[in-house]
Amino acid sequence: MSQGAEGSGCLLLLLAGLLAVLGPSPTSSIHVYTQREVHGTVGSPVTLSCSFWSSEWISEDISITWHFQAEGTRDSISIFHYAKGQPYIDDVGTFKERMEWVGNPRRKDGSIVIHNLDYTDNGTFTCDVKNPP
Questions:
Q1: Predicted local confidence at residue 132, as pLDDT
Q2: Which helix (H) or strand (E) covers residue 7, if one does?
């Protein structure tokens, strides 16, 4: 993040969608869509959108996981997981008290909201969707 962006209180959050392949057939894949870049203002909320498409019906075993890789680091951490119809916000890290699940897998939506943005939230967020047969 440049010094000028810090002065304006603006954050750039990068999103990456993952393609979860369920088998060798191309009709068994899930296509995940996110915005390439999301900008937010320090102190405000931001929605990280994650939509997906599958040629298969949405299973009760669908899982959605969000990962975060801080700017300038190589490691990513899991910050959110949805499985068995329940959202699980990881209870460690800086996001634990600031995250809200707003997705609905039946509508092919795995979106989350991060409240009270901070400069340390700058980095890459990845949405990973799995729809087991």
A1: 87
A2: helix 3-8
